[in-house]
Amino acid sequence: MKIDCHMHITPPDIINNPNAKFLENETYFKWLSASKINKFATGNDIIDELNNANFDKGVVFGFGFKDPSLCKYVNDYTIEQIQKYPDKLIGFMVIQPNDPHMATEIERCANAGLVGIGELFPEGQNFDLTKIHSTSQLNECCSKFNLPILLHTNENIGHNYVGKTKTTLQELEIFIKNHTHTPIILAHMGGGLLFFECMKEIHKLCENVYYDTAALLFLYEATIYQIAKQLNIEHKILFGSDYPLVQINKYDKGFADSRLDDKIINDIKGNNLLNMFTSLLN
């Protein structure tokens, strides 16, 4: 089974008016949406992309806003779309970790069929990854409802680009230490954290950490797949396209150049994610 674990879904009225007044305080969203390369996708767009790429399913989620009411709004659309396309779409919820009523929204979304949390943007949503009091409620909810967390990350060196934040590997390390029993998917290859899994203590710490490939082709050579294999963490690599920013088939060349065998590639494209969800229930 082929599954894309990183697809952005947006309600049509936000697509049609990204500069609406109710979005005026969402600085991070406005920064991203103003980019020339930014794109939006509805549920129908995502279904078309999955079919065109011959993928079975996609994990979809709305934008992680600062305003909890906007998170709820895009969660409603995600719920609507997974109910419309139950055989194709897997839904995650976005929440504001600073929201004192966060647990209520997580329970509502979990009961409606959403099976994960994310993509969360620490800098964009102004929450501190290192403060356990800021994320303890999140941890409790993930345990109660068997939910993984998808977290935005990026490398701390190299060129600047829209979406690149100042979140550090040290902050990620602390967050992981505070959430060792929760599966954590670090988007965009964990901002390079996976390279540090050659350190014994980091490898042990990251037993429950996964890395998605979203936007990988903009940043890394295809040799990153071989590095993951050499580190014995290829089973923790999850295929994510970052659609609609990148189409699924744009990753074909990287896989062809990776020199990985077909089984590992197929596992990355879906089986690893299924195994992660299976482990949540055990």
Within CATH, the superfamily carries the name: Metal-dependent hydrolases
The largest beta-sheet arranges its strands as: 4-5-6-7-8
End-to-end separation in angstroms reads 21 Å
Structural class by SSE content: alpha/beta
* Average pLDDT taken over every residue: 95
- Counted up, domains total 1
Number of helices: 12
> Radius of gyration in whole Å, from Cα?
17 Å
Helix/strand order: EHHHEHEHEHEHEHEHHEHH
What would CATH call the class? Alpha Beta
Strand share of the residues?
A: 5-15%
Helix content, binned percent: 40-55%
Described by strand count, sense and barrel closure, the largest sheet is:
5 strands, parallel
In short:
Helices cover 41% and strands 11% of the residues.
Question: Helices and strands in order, then pairings?
Answer:
Layout: E1 3-8, H1 12-16, H2 27-33, H3 43-52, E2 57-61, H4 68-84, E3 89-91, H5 102-111, E4 117-120, H6 132-145, E5 149-151, H7 169-178, E6 184-186, H8 200-205, E7 209-212, H9 216-219, H10 223-230, E8 237-238, H11 252-257, H12 262-280
Parallel strand pairs: 1-2, 2-3, 4-5, 5-6, 6-7, 7-8
Helix pairs in contact: 5-6
Give structural notes.
This protein has 282 residues and is α/β, with parallel strands linked by helices. 41% of the residues lie in helices and 11% in strands. It has one domain (3-280): TIM Barrel (Alpha-Beta Barrel), CATH 3.20.20. The protein has twelve helices and eight strands. The strands form two sheets. The chain has a five-stranded parallel beta sheet with strand order 4-5-6-7-8. The two termini are 21 Å apart. The mean pLDDT is 95.
